[in-house]
Design a protein that fits this description.
Blueprint lengths: L2 H20 L62 E6 L5 H6 L7 E6 L2 H17 L9 E5 L6 H4 L5 E7 L17 H10 E11 L2 H13 L3 E3 L2 H6 L1 H9 L1 H8 L5 E7 L3
Parallel strand pairs: 1-2, 1-4, 2-3, 4-5
Antiparallel strand pairs: 5-7, 6-7
Helix pairs in contact: 8-9
Bound molecules: S-adenosylmethionine.
S-adenosylmethionine (SAM) binds next to strand 2 and helix 9.
Amino acid sequence: MSDRQSKRKQYREAKEESRQVLKHARFEESQEVSLPKKRFYRQRAHSNPFSDHKLEYPRNPDAMDWGRYYPGYVDPETGKLDRRVEIADIGCGFGGLLVDLAPQFPEQLILGMEIRVQVTKYVEDRILALRQQHKDTNAYQNISVIRGNAMKFLPNFFHKAQLSKMFFCFPDPHFKQRKHKARIVTATLLSEYAYVLREGGVVYTITDVEDLHQWMVSHLDEHPLFERLSKEWEDQDVCVATMRESTEEGKKVARNNGDKFVACYRRIAV
Ligand SMILES: C[S@@+](CC[C@H](N)C(=O)[O-])C[C@H]1O[C@@H](n2cnc3c(N)ncnc32)[C@H](O)[C@@H]1O
């Protein structure tokens, strides 16, 4: 094992240990925790959404122990969460959007779902460190992350009509035609997204790949349960502004002066 690999191994093991302690802490009294360093959590850029990742998922949303993810919202009498997740960031990557949405929606629980293991661990450590650093105000208790494949088990995590917003920020483009079926927006998947979204809920999409943008727009346009929101609506919506600026991919695109294509859709009644 090279020096670099053993350093990364040591770092990951130490973080794993502190993660196990902090994860269950409601309002932790102990020491300050520093923000995790991204370079220790690198892994392959892509994860095949069709492989069997031995993912853990609940039988149904009520079988989830949500208290583990949002300990600050556990009702001490019932031991259960006093509210449900309402906002989901699908393929949240390194968690920039979650972190920026947290103070904007302090009363709502926001969940990132991410398929890559190390990336999920980075986001978990980032959130635990932020909670520690802001323990006086209880900030960042309302965001959490879960490792999961959004293309497979969404209705196992969320009840019908539970969500008010779903974000798809810079999803993997899967350029080749034979890989298009791996895209996170397809007709079948949109029906699942419509199931977990409430009427009036919004699907947010943003990408720097025009072909993928057209793909998402055409699938959403064709779906009977979604209606596109206007440019004026986008311009006044705080989340559109946030998703343009907050995510790690969005920042990379901005540094390279790339375009960002946005499309937002409202979940309409049947
Ligand atoms: C290009 S990155 C964008 C990350 C983030 N949204 C951003 O804008 O910085 C796409 C992310 O989606 C994740 N992903 C891809 N397919 C997924 C799936 N089926 N379920 C959950 N996450 C997925 C990838 O692991 C990757 O982190």
